[in-house]
């Protein structure tokens, strides 16, 4: 008798090996799922863009370029610490919940073990942040007076970790509609909180809204998931299963590296620009980077909600290639069109989204947008490393290319000024895409045995 875990993979495997009629039905089913995922994520993205525009406008008016750079520093630190506090196991939860979605016992073992890991890591990271609040404030925000913000963040870390586990479980179960509802409500609440705090306390209010974000996310998840019974309590609570520790730890390493290395690189880049050029120019760079974050959500949300679970569930090479080509054909043209539109409207965007103080940011868009397209193209391939648990390869490439990005920024800003930062971004992702195509050439049909 086959292991019960095979039941979770059987539908995918049988669809690929069954007759033409079954394969055709399966293909139509998953295509419709992808279209539905993109449609729902599109609605979420529209709202995120709108709330992002409102909050960015308010923050830029009250904080200015230098203040915007300061807020970017704290946001990167929050991302870094939240990843560590959440044990970095989010991708692992998505993979294993998707893989064992029909095996209730294994699925609940994954989620309960994940919560225990999150609790332990949150306690350690929160204590460290609490103890070193003043030094962190002085180093990152150039003022030890912001230490209370770090203390507040330390006390809410666990809540953010629980919210991350809940979102990962819903993602693995492919509950796109429920994730969309959480995202819609969360964005409205967060935007309202940010605007209110900025209007009342200026830059300090924007920083306070940043550190309160984990608590806000948890409260919303609690109301919707627990009160509306989207998940049973037994789906989350339970004993710690040592046999799952090793399997999750591989993804933990990948997510910790991915969640730590990129924010650290951005912290260094922003510090370098502020130190060698000026805080205002760091704000210009942050402004353009923020625009990329906003508009690329139309690509990254469906990638995260559809693409990763599908690659995780596919068991054969032909199925993997089909998913890669399908995702590329649908999402890469969207990335190109979006980048072209942003470039055409760059002056309007800068003056509408920010203020006249940010006019110099317009000259950074061209190569930033080229880098965005290359980033999405490479991400479509690099996600295979996450979906298929290629831990060593992921860690090496992530560290290597984040380090090369910092080096390129240092070299190119020294030679070309602030524009060099956007040159470095595009050049780094061009090299990364070349490497991804080489590494996964067989998966996309370029290898000899494709």
UniProtKB/TrEMBL annotation:
Q: Where in the cell is it found?
A: Cell membrane
Q: Which InterPro entries match?
A: Poly_Biosynth_Transport, WzxE
GO biological process terms, alphabetically, are: enterobacterial common antigen biosynthetic process
Q: What is its main location?
A: membrane
Transmembrane annotation, as ranges: 74-94, 115-133, 145-169, 181-201, 207-227, 248-274, 294-312, 324-345, 365-387, 399-417, 423-440
Record keywords, A-Z:
Cell membrane, Membrane, Transmembrane, Transmembrane helix
Q: Which Pfam families match?
A: Polysacc_synt_3 (PF13440)
In the bilayer, the protein is annotated as:
Multi-pass membrane protein
Checking CDD domains in the record gives: MATE_like_10
Q: Name one GO cellular component term.
A: plasma membrane
Instruction: Please identify the protein, giving its name as recorded.
Output: O-antigen translocase
